[in-house]
Each structure stands twice: as C-alpha cells, then as structure tokens.
Design brief:
Elements lengths: L25 H16 L4 E3 L9 E5 L4 E13 L2 E5 L9 E5 L2 E7 L5 E7 H14 L10 E2 L2 H6 L3
Antiparallel strand pairs: 1-2, 2-3, 3-6, 4-5, 5-8, 6-7
The structure holds nickel (II) ion.
Length: 158
Amino acid sequence: MGLRKILTDKDPALHKVCRPVDKFDRRLHKLLDDMTETLADANGVGLAAPQVGILRRVVVVDTGDEILELVNPELVETSGEQCGAEGCLSVPGKYGLVKRPNYAKVRAQNRDGEWFEAEGEELIARCFCHELDHLDGIVYTEVMERFLTDEELERDEY
Ligand code: NI
C-alpha cells in the first residue's frame, strides 16, 4: 500500500485518453490498493488512474457502503437529470455547476478481469460519470455550466 500524488488539472496526464487494462496482474492490484488509500486519505468519493499519472482505464469509487474497483468501465445505462455542485481532487478548492444523469449503470471488470455491473443514483451516478470522463481526458470544468461562488456554496443554493 502507498499514497500516490494527486495531479492537478494543469498536468497533461489529465487531458489524455487512457488505454484499456489488459493485464490483471500484481501491478494492477497494487495500483488499485494505492488508489483506494489515496482516495481515503483525500476524503474523496472517486479517483481515476490518470489523476495519479497512470493512463489506464481504472477508477475507484467509495459509495459509502463499499469501495468499487472499476477496471475498463463503460456506461451502459443512464436516466433522468440532476444539476448540482461537483468538485474534483484535481481541482482543489473549487466547485462547479454540472448537469449529469440522475441514474447511471456501469459495466466493468474487477481486479481479476471478471465483468460485473454497478448502479447508482444522485451522488454515485454523478461520480460514475465524472470518473469515466477522466478516462477520456475530460475534467468537469470542461463540461460545467460555471464555477460556483463561495457565497453560493455557503448558502447551498444555485
Ligand atoms: Ni475528478
């Protein structure tokens, strides 16, 4: 286990399309372990491999109940809409107003290469979409309506 450095969105790694994982080996397991530790240390909800400088299609999400390890994830179903505050560990101290589906289902491989599905609403659906965007080099600031002001965040109204 080990903490990895989280890159900011000024780093070119955050703007590249990541390659699929093809080896489900110890190196991948170590990456997943480190990402989970790094996510917990940063108090985040989700973390994508490019945020720690690895250009592979790997994401970890803390649903509150469990840690989901998503390898080569694909969005297979979305519905509804939500518009709310969204942040990113690579854009520290800022939040933007981002429109996302209210429900999302992903299909992904686990650390051993077996396919499974995971679904979520609200924050989890937002997180799936946000993290999968990272794998295509998209940071939320590129799809947001606008940054939220401190005043809006304090009032929790936008
Ligand atoms: Ni992010």
